[in-house]
Amino acid sequence: MSTLRMLVAGAALACGALVAVAQTTQTSVSVRAGLGKPIAEADIKQWDIAILPDGTNLPPGNGTAAEGAAIYAEKCVACHAEGGKGGASPGATALVGGAPLTNGIDTTKTIANYYPYATTVFDYIRRAMPFNAPRSLSDHEVYALTGYILALNKLIDEKAVMDAKTLPQVQMPNRDNFSTPYPDRI
Fold it and tell me: What percent of the chain has a predicted confidence (pLDDT) above 90?
């Protein structure tokens, strides 16, 4: 038997063994394979941070555009440039402006012309920003940055307070151009 055939046969046997092990419970997999450990609910909870369109799972806190402007200047401007114009670093897209998406697929997608829900803006900032330190912002900072970006896009008044009650009420211009996996939660 050639070396290649032996490798393929070995891989097939290994895959079969893995499938059999995977079909048992998580605890027995850990014990039998000698890998990992069962995941506690507390460990899962710290990563279960999805914010739904209706605001479900938004944390306590609040922020204003004025507070967000100061945070943006400190933590965001290096990548997204002054006023959210984008392009200050590779991959940092514009947050403001953008032609309507009816101009074609190559249209630059921004907060105002693409995002369907203001809660999605909050969720994304909370999970992924700043790029060099994701999940490092406090909930207050995320509310303030979300308010600042929404105000830059003229979607809310710059004096509006963003919190778990007001954020889901923001009507995004492109909202009706999406279908949602949670139609009962809009």
Answer: 46
